[in-house]
Each structure stands twice: as structure tokens, then as C-alpha cells.
Amino acid sequence: MNAYNRDNFFPDTSIGYLVRAVHQLGYARLDAACANEGLTGIQWSALIAIHFGQTNSAALARDLAHDKGAMTRMVDVLEAKGLVQRDRDDADRRLVNLSLTDEGRAVAMRCRDRVIDLWNAVLADWSAEETACLIAQLQKLRRALEVAA
Known about the structure:
single chain; about 150 residues; mainly alpha; Arc Repressor Mutant, subunit A; 6 helices; about 5% strand; MarR/SlyA-like; Winged helix-turn-helix transcriptional regulator; transcription regulation; WH-like_DNA-bd_sf; Tscrpt_reg_MarR-type_CS
């Protein structure tokens, strides 16, 4: 059975529209949560991705849905703030690996704690089961989209 037809496909029922709206609203909240550290939500997302092991700028750009040029400029800003450092890869000198400085790690963790508080506030009326189900469904949707590509 198909999920959509001409009678039930509207913006408020469209997965694409809803995911995009949630994304935009979420990043506006992330911006506010990270503002006192002088970061935007997307800058914090880059820091936390690096913290969790995403050290390749091209992969980071793909994961955060940024083009490589925009990612390079963002890393330039984070490096100028003393939060990120670039190092040539020992095995392949053409590659540049990203890592957090001590200050970058501290800022990323302070923002992480605010982001945890943010999501806990947003999901305050949700049961643990509802939250787990949403996460599982979004992960399933991501896998389906990756396979479809």
C-alpha cells in the first residue's frame, strides 16, 4: 500500500515538509542555546561531530548538509576562535584532520549540556516510549533514504 495519494498529500502530512520544518525550528532553538558561547547551532553541530570522531572536513560537510566551501569557511571561523585545529594526516599528507582544542572541547560540552536541557524541555510532555519510538522511526527513515539514494 502506498502512503500517499492525491487526496492525502498536503504540507502538514508531507514527511519532507515536516522534517524540514522541524529542522529549521530545531536549529533556531540550537542557535539560542549556543549563543552565549558565541556559536551558532550549526557551528556547535560541527564541534560535537568532531568530538565524536568526524575528523574529515568533506565527510563533516556531507553529514551537516553543507557544501565543502561553506564548511571550509566554518572551520576557518572555529579555528580563529581557538576551538578547532587542523593537522595534516600522517599517512596521506593531502588530507587534513580536524580536532578540538581543549577550549573547543570545553565549549562543545557546555553547549551539549544546554542542548540536552533544550531537548528535555521540548520533549517534557512525551513519554520515554514516545521519544524512543520517534528516534527509532527517524533512524529507520534515514536508513531508507540512504538505501534509496
